[in-house]
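Case study 2.
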Amino acid sequence: MHLDGYNDEQLFKLLQDGSETAFNAIFNRYSKRLYVEAYNRLQDADEGNDIVQEVFFWLWERKNSLEVPQCLKAYLVQVVRNKCVDLIRKKTSTRDKKQQYTWLADTYTTTSHIENKELGRQLAAAINSITPASRQAFEQLYLYKKSLKEIATEMDINVQSVKNHIHRALKVLRENLKHSLS
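Prediction:
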């Protein structure tokens, strides 16, 4: 069966019916684009290939429980991004959380000017809802790029307390922003 003329919605419905030919057509159509996305995120060819394989395995395993996406390409790219985030989280130690935060912030900045303005307002409100000590530790780490030790010295507390403040601040931000970023 030759499926080059089929659109994504038609291919996806065939995939849901168990068509390996449709699966192969989707793979051939998007695997290179997905690899580029994974490689750009991870900067590692082997990990990029692994992510693409994992995404297509995931797609095949869940084909019957997924709804037909409006845009299959965008959907698969987002799945790749999520898989990359998961991989980075697994590989990242606590001292690398700052880099992870920056990367995640960059991942979600593909929004319009109006969305950025609204998100900025929501972020400011979320930051203002953090307790003063936790907000101070958060701002010193992420905005002023200070080390945990420097922050501990300035706040006259130990490094573990700074980590606890940062953790609480991130938790409050996640809670306050989870609906804004979804």
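The chain has a mean pLDDT of 84.
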